[in-house]
Specification:
The chain is mainly α. It has one domain. It contains 9 helices and 11 strands. It has a 3-stranded antiparallel beta sheet. Strands 1-7 form a two-stranded antiparallel sheet. It has a two-stranded antiparallel sheet with strand order 4-5. Helix 3 packs across helix 4, helix 6 packs antiparallel against helix 9 and helix 7 runs antiparallel to helix 8. The longest helix is centred in the C-terminal third of the chain and has 28 residues. The chain is globular, with a radius of gyration of 26 Å.
Length: 343
């Protein structure tokens, strides 16, 4: 039998070395993260402050409407529902401050900041006098006559929180290109499908913003001879029936929802896509739970299509985020970005 040559021995050693290093390559980190710029951490700090303020305003008087002081509901379920969106924003901000998957956190902050623009304009509506309001409006599930409208600490605090979220959006846009984070690109093949699904869910979100979240059931009045008359009771209104800044805020909010849904699929890495969808899901689920709790508290209000659509949009955005997190396909031909540090 011919003894193995030097070339054969070298081939065996190379193959063995490759087999030994294969498990190490298979366990390489899925995401490579570079240094987090200071402006990204500043955006995170601003967003965390906004989230804390959104929680604090739940314990402040909101407004005086027709001589009635309006306070946010403070039951355990109400507080839990109100904490959902600010809690997600604070967690995302914390991940950026710590440098853990920064583009995931920045994506949540960007989505929340875009929503904050429309919400801030809508809050400016509450600063206007009674002449700018409808005769009867719904405040935290209570139908009140707006003979006078005086904003209290809750309005100012909520407005400041939304302005801070919008400012965090500006800082996030500045920091995005300088925040280095990439993956293997195995999600790239799924992006066209995700964009189509996100467009459908975005339309649901737009309808949720536009439709009435709560409704007042019609009253049936019977006179002395037994003749019945149906009287329509004023309650919350749809987007197109709103006035002034209330209308503008709703339009900006609806536009932000649909734009974010479309842009989410274009962001790299995949966790940035997940972050935008999580931000949208947290906002809609928080809003839907608050509407459901308010409608169940007062007998003169019932849940309307807008409230159900908010719940549907929140669940759909959450399901789409989970799909993006788990979906995979062939790796992208584009090599990952060179980065100095691995985490």
């Amino acid at each position: 039998m011919k003894p193995p040559s030097d070339g054969d021995r070298e081939f065996v050693r190379t193959a063995a070395k490759g087999a030994a290093t294969a498990p190490a390559a298979a366990t390489a980190p899925a995401h490579i993260v570079g240094p987090v710029p200071a402006v990204a951490r500043a955006a995170a700090v601003v967003a965390i402050l906004a989230s804390l303020l959104l929680v604090a305003v739940r314990f402040l008087p909101y407004a005086d409407v027709g001589g009635v002081q309006v306070d946010p509901p403070r039951g355990p379920l109400d507080i839990g529902a109100a904490l959902l969106w600010p809690g997600v924003v604070a967690a995302a901000g914390g991940s950026v401050v710590l440098g853990k998957l920064p583009r995931l956190g920045l994506a949540v902050l960007a989505a929340s900041g875009a929503l904050g623009i429309g919400l801030a304009v809508g809050e400016l509506y509450q600063l206007q006098g009674a002449e700018a309001h409808r005769a009867v409006e719904v405040f935290f599930g209570r139908r009140l006559v707006t003979s006078t409208v005086e904003p209290l600490a809750g309005v100012w605090g909520q407005l400041l929180a939304y302005v801070l979220l919008a400012f965090a959006l500006v800082l996030t846009l500045v920091a995005w290109s300088g925040t280095t984070m990439d993956d293997s690109g195995d999600f790239d093949g799924q992006r066209p499908r995700v964009m189509g699904l996100a467009a459908l869910v975005g339309l649901v979100g737009v309808l949720a913003v536009a439709a009435r979240p709560q409704d007042a059931p019609d009253q049936i009045i019977e006179d002395v001879i037994g003749y019945r008359t149906t009287v329509q009771v004023a309650g919350s209104v749809s987007l197109l029936d709103r006035l002034g800044l209330d209308l503008l805020g709703g339009v900006l909010l609806a536009a932000a929802v649909f734009t974010l849904a479309l842009l989410a699929a274009t962001l790299r890495p995949r966790l940035a896509t997940v972050g935008v969808l999580v931000g949208l899901a947290a906002y809609f689920l928080s809003a839907a739970l608050r509407v459901l709790l308010e409608a169940g508290r007062y007998a003169d209000l019932v849940i309307a299509p807008g409230g159900l659509l908010q719940l549907l949009a929140g669940l759909a955005f959450a399901a789409l985020a989970r799909y993006c997190l788990r979906a995979s396909g062939p790796q992208s031909s584009r090599p990952p970005l060179p980065m100095p540090g691995h985490r």
